[in-house]
Amino acid sequence: MDYMAAFVAEAFFDSEIECDQLRALWTAYCLHYNLDVDTLEYDRDLEQVWKEVASTENDTAYWSDFGSFGDFMGEYLV
């Protein structure tokens, strides 16, 4: 989680590559910690990432709010 927070702090989410990298990091994190989509643990950790993202850039071509961010981040997990 600390690595994702550091990545978010340095990323420019107007770039498709960096958005995809964040999604890949999130996917690896979920697989490593056995997080299933739409569970309390998953939602709690995703909200933590969202807070980091929203503090830097919460509206991109890929998401505009927590709901669309969740859809984007969970694409490879469902």
Please provide the ordered H/E string of secondary-structure elements.
Answer: HHHH
* Number of contiguous helices: 4
Q: Please state the CA-atom Rg, rounded to the nearest Å.
A: 11 Å
Shape: globular
* Proportion of residues in helical segments: 55-70%
In whole angstroms, the N-to-C terminal distance is 21 Å
Sheet with the most strands?
none
Number of strands: 0
Q: Structural class, from helix and strand content?
A: mainly alpha
Strand content: under 5%
Averaged pLDDT: 94
Unreliable segments of 5+ consecutive residues: none
At a glance:
With 78 residues, this protein is mainly alpha-helical. The chain has 4 helices and no strands. The longest helix has 17 residues, at 16-32.
Question: What layout of secondary structure does this protein have?
Answer:
Blueprint: H1 2-10, H2 16-32, H3 40-56, H4 66-73
Helix pairs in contact: 1-3
Architecture overview:
The two termini are 21 Å apart. The protein is globular. The relative contact order is 0.19. Helix 1 (2-10) runs parallel beside helix 3 (40-56). The mean pLDDT is 94. 65% of the residues lie in helices and 0% in strands. The chain is mainly α. The chain has 4 helices and no strands.
